[in-house]
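Posting this for the archive.
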Amino acid sequence: MRKNSIKNTRINGEVKKELSILISREIKDPRINPMTSVIDVEVAPDLKTAKVYISVMGDEESRNETYQGLRSAASYMRSQLARSLNLRNTPELIFIMDSSIEYGVNMSKLIDEVNSHSSGGSEEINEEIDEDVDE
């Protein structure tokens, strides 16, 4: 099976969906932040491993604790995947922290700040133009 085949894409989607449900509803580890999202899953073509990209909203300590909690729950999640998905091999889960969502939120805040400063400056310019027209 090739890496970008339709079958591999479908398996990636199913594993992502199942892991999202497992992390949000079934795992009761207090170390895992409730704002944990599964961003993407890349299952190897031989179905031996799966890279699971995780995003956690919070500080660095929260990310580290969530990572440790997910690593300790990996065998449980793998067994649940084996029950819910009918695959020849159930992949070993490799968690990778992804900060793209947090980066996007920070960039959005910066853009909003720039826009708010820009609009304030344009109002002042408009007032100056209005004063010049009145004279």
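The chain has two domains: 6-98, 100-135. The beta strands are 36-43, 49-56, 92-97.
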